[in-house]
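User: I'm curious whether this sequence folds into something compact or stays loose and floppy. Could you predict its structure so I can see for myself?
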Amino acid sequence: MTPRQNIPQYALVTAAYWGFTLTDGALRMLVLLHFHTLGYAPLQLASLFLLYEICGIVTNITGGWLGSRVGLKTTLLLGLALQVIALLALSYLNEDWPLVLAVPFVVAVQGLSGIAKDLTKMSAKSSLKLIVPEDQNSTLFKWVALLTGSKNTLKGVGFFLGGVMLNMLGFVVALWVMAGMLVLILLPTALFLSGDLGQTKVKVTFSEIFSKDRAINLLSAARFFLFGARDIWFVVALPLFLYDTMTLTFTQVGGLMALWVVGYGLVQSLAPIIIRKSPDGQSMEIKENKLWIFILSLVPFLIVAAVKSGLPPTYAIGAGLALFGIVFAINSALHSYLILAFTSKDQVAITVGFYYSANAGGRLAGTILSGLIYQYGGIEACLLGSGLMLVAAFFFSFLIPVQKIN
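Assistant: Here's the prediction. I'll summarize afterward.
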């Protein structure tokens, strides 16, 4: 691929990822708030996303292998198409169905959406390693940060749209609108994205999906706990706290969650400016990763300490949420860059798939714990759990060797 072709290909991948992210964020808020109003307990709500996260683990492991064989364009289109099917399927849910039927149906559809999400995510992020020319580490960091940051900004917009559409259109019509939007994005991607993107000349065996590189394994372990720490209080506990304790409306909950994720995404996009960089693209970045995960590990404990000291929970959690978002965004951007820096172009789909399976595993653990701990211990207990997971993330990050890996 020539340099002239790089930007249009990057634009296509980014647009596809953006479109998917809008629907993914909106769907998360739609499902959470809609079923909460139907009387689902926090743990039951968490269970609705269980298969979504499990499928994410499996999809990332197998999707990287599949992408290396059939190309990343195929896996990207497959992810978009599966999301359309999931949205349309969920629109057939009948509120009169008993829980014994409704819950398995929603869980199954969410599982399909989980497959779609991680096929799309793996394909989009792996593509950057192939689009950016060799030895342009600064450009790679900027493009990764821009893709990841803009994705999270749009996920925040999706949260807001989910709350708005639930109020204005209702559950079913909102799902139809999102499915139609994805079809409009899928068509130009199918027509214009390079067909051989990510397809390796040497066929990769299935046994090669597990990384043998120590730095990649340690970064993956840190990623597991990093995203588990976010979701343990962000997925179920925080929206329900805002709705039940702060008595916000659907739109207000979606708007506040959107504001957080939009700000988080903007900080991610700016991470290459904030982070100190090295000529080899790795040594200083690894040191920065250790510093920022240490800072993040302190934040949940500081929020709990502020509440215990007498500061109203609304203010403590509001301010803490902003601080957590800023520091988490920098950590996430560093991670997204380092996994590409650690791998070769021939192994990028396999490596990224393995790495994001750890990401999905962390989300799964965080989602389950978010519903379980919030139901029995409240938001403060969720924050303490988040802090403990971040301590584990710091431990694995600390073990990553500070040297040029490749």
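Summary: The CA atoms of residues 80 and 328 lie 27 Å apart. The first helix runs from residue 3 to 37.
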